[in-house]
Amino acid sequence: MTHHPEGSPLDASIAELGEALRRRTLGVVELTRASIERAERTAPLNAFVGIDSEASLLAADGLQKLLDAGHDLGPLHGIPVAMKDNIAIRGRGMAAGSRILANNVATTDATVTTRLKRGGAVLVGRTNLHEFAWGGTTDNPHFGRCHNPWDRDRIPAGSSGGSGVAVAVGAVPASLGTDTGGSVRLPASMNGVTGIRPTIGRVSTTGVFPLAWSLDTVGPLARSSDDCATVLQQIGGYDPLDDVSREAPLGDLARDIDLPLAGMRIAILRDYSLRGLQPGVERAMRAILNLLRDAGALVEELTLPHLDELVDAQIVIDAAEPSAVHQRWLRERPEDYGRDVRLLLEAGLRFSAVDYIQAQRYRAALREAMTDVFRRVDVVLTPTIPFTAPRFDQLNVPVGEDDTDILDGNMVFTALPSLTGTPAISLPIGMDENGLPVGLQAVAAPFAEHVLFRFGHALQQLTDWHRLRPPLDGSAGE
Amino acid sequence: MTDAAYSEELEQLAGEWAARADRVSRLVGTSIDATRVPAVVVDYR
């Protein structure tokens, strides 16, 4: 682990950068240029599919003039942000990691893009993803493999792998990803950054290429929980263009961050939260639970029924819906998909309507059970994933005496919020014996993102894991 | 990868997923009140 050379503005938090921009000790163009240079310097990791230097420097210049004229657009004014390449930015390419959309240029902005622009964010580039967001390795056959900056022979997770890596190496203070079955939280965990999947309906998905309509969300990745709150504050809220969008007031997402951990009610789930973990992940989890208890949090163990079928139901829905999205292209041009994604899409066509409906009924029952849990506690904790980043050539990961299938392991904890529509944040909580980051998943009640930011802020006051950086010279893993 | 190898892999994955769907259907059929829990997509409105 390392800390980057002092003096780079890219090591600062969004709040610190905002302060420097307003004190004029840093300029928007200077910050944007630093962001582009960092992205170019770390290009071998393949986090970006496009660095939009010209457009972003032009925007930066305009934003500096606005600031100089006294027009302050808010906390993201002048802050570089990277966007997953399945989120539309008008006039820029949006391939969604595919050959099929390789020449697609977005004609309108996604709602989240509009909101970031309105808030003065500088959209410096588009990040690599698993093809059509259907997979967890970001080993993209069309745009190249994205590498984990802690060990380049290992996956950065996915599907928002590029968004995780871009933040981990400090190319941007924040990025946007999409999360259907874990695609924000998994790369947050494996790259050692923070990422939040919001409640379904909290952030508009208008202008985002769909993976699975009933599960899709858009969420930020950043170094800290506080920075994620700043971005979510800007992109969240009702969107009349999105049928799933909810008119729930966003409020001030940072309103509770100064509340202490003492008295916070925290649950782990029996025979689930600590089951089947790699030793390094289990050690980190137990250390954090002890830390929380020492800080006065009330940690209890609760039971949630039928969790053995969680991944099964997730896969039925998470696979059937994309196959409906892609049905026409699968018929007309199947050879244009990468092999792994084509397999997933074609297998997804085999589910029956009854299979899908029963999975949705399981989901409804699980949501009801989770509602009961949140009557008793503020957050539920699990690891984000039972293991740290596997190598690219691994199909299974040894956990204890068993081998865990990577797809299964990817979803075993992330499926709980995905299926129940509840918000979940992934926070860095340690490193394993190979120097790879471990992530904690905290889940809260629907529309209680502010509770997650309270928890995340408090935890990151007590720990420094979110401050660790991979080396920029690519030496990790060599 | 040959067509045969691809087809074999597809059949294997589809088989695994059919077993998963079956597990969910069996659970729902025995443990969830069919009249009470409809198949609703998550909707907090």
Describe the structure.
The complex is a heterodimer of chains A (478) and B (45). Chain A has 478 residues and is of the alpha/beta class. Helices cover 37% and strands 15% of the residues of chain A. Chain A has 14 helices and 15 strands. Chain A has helices at 14-23, 28-41, 53-68, 111-118, 161-168, 185-191, 225-235, 279-294, 310-325, 327-332, 339-348, 353-376, 406-420, 449-462, and strands spanning 48-51, 80-84, 122-127, 139-140, 144-145, 174-179, 194-197, 217-222, 265-269, 298-302, 379-383, 396-399, 402-405, 424-431, 437-443. In chain A, α2 runs antiparallel to α3 (53-68). The longest helix of chain A is centred in the C-terminal third of the chain and has 24 residues, at 353-376. The two termini of chain A are 14 Å apart. The model of chain A is unreliable at 1-6 (pLDDT under 50). The longest helix of chain B is centred in the middle third of the chain and has 29 residues, at 3-31. Chain B is mainly alpha-helical and 45 residues long. Chain B is built from one helix and no strands.
